[in-house]
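Q: I'm building a small set of examples for a reading group on sequence design. Run inverse folding on the following structure and report the sequence directly after it, with nothing in between.
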């Protein structure tokens, strides 16, 4: 069930992307994410296998974000907490993919898919210091719906703003 946008292919995530995730999910990319960087490729593989189980259980749908042309891996995106009233969007892209509106395009594709599933509203949490990511829900008419401070397992503090995006 891959999803397509103008420039991207979103394909269900699998452990085959573990090396890419291990290589790119660190440093600047994880600065505003709840999850921290993996310590080795096997740890990345275990996380991706967990995401596959989440898909099988109907809890989440996580996709590898690829360029259509050449199938270059750009990052991961997903619809999480699918059994809740308001599922959550998630996204990270490797640093070389930043600034090209791939994030906005990815979220647009996920929103269309969520709409086809009958989902009426999505949450998009983002750290208030992550200006580029905060622009994504605003582009889609998202409205501020709350905030929270989170302490990550590796000791970072996130200052999240939670946006809600109506799909109907």
């Amino acid at each position: 069930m891959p999803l397509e946008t103008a420039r991207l292919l979103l394909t269900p995530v699998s452990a085959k992307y573990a090396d890419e995730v291990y290589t790119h999910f660190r440093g600047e990319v994880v600065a505003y994410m709840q999850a921290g960087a993996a310590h080795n490729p096997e740890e990345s593989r275990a996380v991706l296998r967990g995401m596959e189980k989440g898909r099988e259980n109907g809890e989440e749908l996580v996709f590898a974000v690829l360029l259509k042309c050449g199938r270059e891996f750009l990052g991961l995106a997903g619809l999480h907490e699918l059994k809740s009233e308001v599922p959550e969007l998630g996204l990270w892209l490797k640093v070389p993919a930043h600034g090209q509106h791939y994030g906005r395009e990815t979220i647009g594709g996920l929103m269309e898919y969520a709409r086809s599933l009958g989902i009426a509203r999505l949450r998009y949490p983002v750290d208030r210091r992550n200006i580029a990511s905060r622009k994504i829900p605003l582009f889609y008419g998202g409205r501020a719906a709350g905030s929270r401070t989170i302490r990550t397992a590796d000791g970072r503090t996130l200052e999240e703003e939670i946006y809600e995006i109506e799909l109907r």
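The chain is about 30% helix and 30% strand.
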